[in-house]
Amino acid sequence: MTDVVQPPMVPEGVNSLYRRFRPGRFSEIRGQEHVIRALQGAVAHDRVVHAYLFSGPRGTGKTSTARILAKALNCPNVIDGDPCNACASCVAITQGASLDVVELDAASNNGVEYVRELAASAWIGTAGRHKVYIIDEVHMLTKASSNALLKTLEEPPHGVVFVLATTDPHKVLDTIKSRTQHLEFRLIAPNVLGELLNDVVTRAALTVDGNSVDIAVQRAKGSARDALSALDQIVASGLSSDVRPDFEALFAAFAESDAVAALTQLARLARDGWDPEQLAENLIAELRQAFLLLVAPEVSDLYAGDRERLAAWGQQFGLPKTVRIIEALGKTVREMHSAPDPTVVLEVTVARLTHPELDNDVAALLERVAKLEKQVAQGGSAVPAAPAPRKPTPSRPIAGLQRTGTAAARPTSAAPAPVEPVAPVMSDEPAVATPPAAPTPVATDLSSLTLADVVARIESIVMPTLMRSAQALLRTSEWRSFEGGVLTIALTGSGLRSAAERIEDGLRTALDKEFGARIQLAWTFDGVAPVDPAAPAASSVRMAEEAEVSYEEIDDSPVLTHDFQAHILKEAFPNAEEV
């Protein structure tokens, strides 16, 4: 491929780079050697077909190649299939003033009548050797229009050549494709685009730095026209940030897991006029390159300085974090399309990316594991120090069982022996703080206790640990006797038998924990319960049978009455007054 020659004349006042430096010869086309070789050979050996279909991404040279082919077919000084670009025919075609070349846009001229007029005009001769019809965006023709073109396209008049250009060849009718020679254009490699831009900078005497060229190449994504337009914008504004957002500060915030800095940088980019969806898409594009440079550097299409910059960020992030950011942003872009405020969706995602503990997906967990592994490799401890044990919170009694916390100090309990601290052991399992063991109760010689001693300890220590219904039942009972380790409790009538059975297990467990020895319980149902003179006397049988207190309803307030019925009524209707 030869060097780019001086571009042909362009209309006066045209300043855009992609028009001033539009290729004028086959040798000036970049990155499409397979197409140029086929066309130059066809012109040199007089094997040009009557219809061509040029397909490929935008800005890859389809229309420019069609014009060069028209020049070559009408140039009297063709050299190796390439037009001279200096004769009257070549100059007229370059300036758009030649009657031998007819260009039209199928997007705005896709009616059947228009196509019929075009087919009829093909029979009108011109001064040139060939009459070339260039139909751009041919896939926009309706089905009826395409059918109207079929006959002329299959058997055009002598000397007429059709060149159809499209970015979506799959939308072109198969009957059209079958009547043409299909040549596919490809995206231009980054290094080729870089050479093109550097050559344009030199020939146009532009004042730009190498970073601006790199940014223009990256923004172009394989399109020569987009690359020249981006370079034109940078030259006009003098700021590369007008073409691509500057994510350096945001990347630093990701690396440091600094949510404040990340959201601040995001707000700054928004104030600069960048749309949140644009930011997310550009960020994904840059992180994709960082990912490729980590996994398969040869696949990345970055050019020069950008390659080194994003490779460094990829190494700093690590593969798990890079993958997680790309996946999270990809989901965010989809959500932003239907969100009432896309900025909020992007901000929430950025907050999660800077705080992996806020996210419970697999990628976030992998990132946290990778961080711990990195700390271990650097000599740090991956297992955080166990926090100091907190004072246990007294639990509520359930079914008459004793609380975890001690309600009152035990007069006979000895102080627990000091426990030697144990150094933490590194393991793969997360460190878990072991709660302190409950003190072992001191065994009591039951033979030395009297009924008064047992009742005093039960009322002051044991009863506060029981459910309120159990407390109320015991307060309406009579402590009859304590002999040989057997405590006899008398209740009023046999109707309270089921209530006594419900609290017996919990009461026995509480007594065992308090006295350190088994106290047998004996119930009698012929006693007379003490009566509070201030409360009306009533039967407490039915209320004791129905007394069921849930876990949430229990509190530590003392029972204020010795009458079981009055107590239950007070619990059920706390604000009621007796009439």
Which descriptors apply to this entry?
single chain, 579 residues, alpha/beta, Zinc Finger, Delta Prime, domain 3, 5-stranded parallel β-sheet, 7% strand, disordered N terminus
Walkthrough of the structure:
With 579 residues, the protein is α/β, with parallel strands linked by helices. It has four domains: 170 residues, P-loop containing nucleotide triphosphate hydrolases (Rossmann fold, 3-Layer(aba) Sandwich); 52 residues, no CATH class; 130 residues, Zinc Finger, Delta Prime, domain 3, CATH 1.20.272.10; 127 residues, DnaA, N-terminal domain (GMP Synthetase, Chain A, domain 3, 2-Layer Sandwich), CATH 3.30.300.180. Helices cover 45% and strands 7% of the residues. β2, α5 and β3 form a beta-alpha-beta unit. The N terminus is likely disordered.
Provide the CATH topology of the largest domain. Answer: Rossmann fold
Averaged pLDDT:
77
Distance between the termini: 111 Å
**Radius of gyration (Å):** 45 Å
